[in-house]
Structure formats: structure tokens, C-alpha cells
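User: I'm curious whether this sequence folds into something compact or stays loose and floppy. Could you predict its structure so I can see for myself?
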Amino acid sequence: MKNKLCLIVLIVTLALSTTANLYSNGQVDTKKSEKDIVRISDTMPGLITPGVWNGQAFSLNSSIYEYLVALSAEDNLLVPSLATSWDTSDGKVWEIKIREGVSFHDGTDLTSEDVKFTILRTQEESVGHAKKADFAAVTSVTTPDDYTVIITLDEKRPTFIYQFTDYNMAILSSSYDYASLGEMKPMGTGAFKIASITPKESAVLVKNDNYWQSEYPLIDELQIYFSSDVEVSLSMLINDKVDIVPFITPIMRQRIETYPKLKIVVPYQEQRYVSMAVDEPPFDDNRVRLALKYAMDPAIIARSTNLTLGEGTDYSESPIMKLLPQYYPIPLRERNIEKSKELLKEAGYPNGLKVSLTYASDHAFNQGIVQAIKELAKDANIQIELKGYPRDIYFAQYWLQRPFTLTTWGGRADPSMLLNLAYKSDGPWNESHIKDPVLDDLIDRISSEVDNEVRNDLYVQLQQYFYDNGAMLNVQVPYFVAMNNKIEGYEQPLTMLPNYKKVFIKK
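Assistant: Here's the prediction. I'll summarize afterward.
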């Protein structure tokens, strides 16, 4: 408790000093009473340069950068952004028209060369781009004029345009040095531009007066405070030190509902992937993976989130979210402890086994889920040691490096994006370390199939594969965002990128 109180004091001090510095340094010459400022307490980011961004602190990058296309908050359908149109006759050659009259924060104009640069950058070894595998299919990018891009792929990819909704595919300037400046001076075309940033502490973003949509943004400034403790963030919200806090838990939600000045917004569901590394014992044996699955009780896991199975929380053994049209409802596995013990015995563990489960302890729902998994597994003589770390430490030191993990994953409107990222042999975020030619082939066929009916059948096969051989559990939970009642216009589609340009303060 003492540490939390100290952290609250630190964040309040940062909030006051950041604002004071802005005014004293002459960076902002408008009187405070005339400015609309929204304050956010967001998650602690690691690297923030697009391409290597780990998806924390969405309020920061989503306000600075933009994408060729976006998803609508209402129905998650594709809508134009920096691209005005896109077309393909065969899924192999794509023509994209770029919006005219857009400029980067440094004053340079957005052209087709910037889009080409952003695409080719995915393949640069020095970058280590998260989308390298997905864009390896690109054989050429040509720019016949300043506002036309022609992309040729080595095979048909009928849903390729969705790749540009990924949060690591922000459009970058071809004339800006992101390798040197991307972390401290991020620069894009977004509705807000960076005024100051203090790593691991805070950032101040100010209105982009040259934004291509002249009616936006509706506020003058975003003040973002980074915190690895959502309890501290919630205290800040209750005490009017911030206006918006993401990643609220159901218990926190109940507390928030007692404050008339606060409200909860639920933009979508998130996923919690429980991943087992198949390249080392004990999970290299599918019988062990099945033993763990048979020990689970989805209803109990759902109750650990303070919600009910099918009413706020969903459970499956595949990475396809229930809300997506590609989801195939395989009946949930019935808990069978005897079957679980039998499988362990066959796998060479007659007396059970011990394993550590590593996770981000400060992310909503995680603590309850891992505790439920631990208690359920105990009945099958699977002893689980829980190792929780703050999310910034988890992602920096343990994620992808441990054999048994729980990680928060956002959804993708096109599931093939996530499959290529996390389940292909060469996927950069392959948590389960799976390298199976059968699965690779399924994912490749899904990605290239033009016929929707055939593609949906392949998705059924994929989900059956995960049920029979997979190395994961998928707990889907609501994404709660808490905010002051004065905040209006908040949108956050399935891309996970909040649209702060539309946020305004109710007077």
C-alpha cells in the first residue's frame, strides 16, 4: 500500500510538473482555461516505434500515427483513412489510391513513396519488424504517381488489405530517421503531435493544426501518464487527476459504478492466450497438453473473471474469437480428471508434473484466470507455480522465452493476420514455438483462398486442428475502459486503436 501511495504522489507530481513545464517553456501559449485537455493513465510501453511496438499505451501511437485503412467502431468494417480506395482483380495485384492534401508533422507531404517505404521497411533486417512474415509475400511495390501504389504479391491474398489495419503498420515518412528519432520524437500524420515525452513516465500531445480533417481533433491536448499499476490509475481517476483509464477489471467496474461522475465503456472483447511451448518438455508431448485441457472447467475459469461463461466471458481452445464470423462452435471439452491422469501416465508422468506459468500480473483478469487454472490443474496432479510480473517486465524479459505463459491478445478483423503472426513456423510472435507443416499449410491456404465458402471450411479445419493438437487455451474477456462522465465521443474498434480525435469534453 505504501508503494502504491508513493506512486500516486509521483504521478500527480508528474502531471503538475509536465503541465507547468509546457507553459513556462512557452510551448503552449493558450491560457489553461481556454484549452480542452484530456488526461489518460495508460499502460507502460516498451518500444513505441511502429514495427517493433508491443501494443502497450495505445493512446500514444494511435494519436500520432495513422493507417491506410481503419475499422469502423460500430461494425468493424473497413473504412478509408490515408487510402481513399483499394482494388484487386485477383488478390495478387493491389492498387491503392493515397489521400491527397495530407502532411506529416514535420510539414512534408504524404505521397506514395511514404507508403512504399513503410511496406519495404517490414523486410529490413535492422528493423526486426513484427509484420515481416506477412509482407514477405510482396514481390514489388511501384508508385506510378504521387498518389498511387501498386503492390504485387507472390500469391493471391484476397484479404491482404486488412494487413494495413495492424497497429504496427502505421504509415511512416520516407524522409524521417525513425531508427534514431522514433522513440523520443515519434512523428506521423495523426491528429496530435508530440510535444514532450519522458520514457516510463509521461507524454504530452498537442493538437495538429494542419490535420487533413480540419474539423478534428475536438480537443487541444492529450496528457498521458504511464503506469504499470491499474489500481493506481483508478485512484487517479476517482480523484480527478486523470479522465480515462483502460484495462479495468470487473471488480473495479463495480467500484466505479458507485461514483456518479464515472462511467464504463466496453468497446470489444480481448483474449487471454494460455500458451504451451511445444519444443520442450513437458508440452512437447500432445498427451500432456490434452491432460491440461481435460483438467480445465470453462465455467469455473469464467467465474474467476467475476463474469459468467457465455455472458461476458467465452472460452475455447483455438485463437479464433467467438465474435468473428470465422468462429466454429466446437463443443467445449468436458472436464475429466481420470482422463487427464491417464494421459499424463501414458506420457511418462505417472506422479504428475510441475510447471511454472508466467504472466503479466497487472493486466485485467490475469490474476483470477491463472489462479483458477492452477487450482483446476492441481486435481490432475499438475502442480503450477505462478510467476507474475508487471506487464512491461513481462514483455521485455519473459514473453516468448518461457514454456508456459498467459498473454493478452487483441482480436483481428481478419484472423489470418493473427495466425501468420503467432502460429506459422516463422511467426515473430509464436508463443507456443509451434513448427508444424500441417498447420503452416492450413494457414497458407486460408490466406490465399479467394472463395469465401472454401476459406470458411478451412477455418473449421484449423479450429479442429487446435482442438486436437493445439497448444493453447483462449479465454475471451470484455475490455473495460473507465472514464469521467464529461468525456464523450470515445471510440475504439477491434484494431485496439482508440480514436482520440473524436473525443470531446461535455461542458
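Summary: The longest strand covers residues 138-145. DSSP finds 15 helices and 22 strands in the chain.
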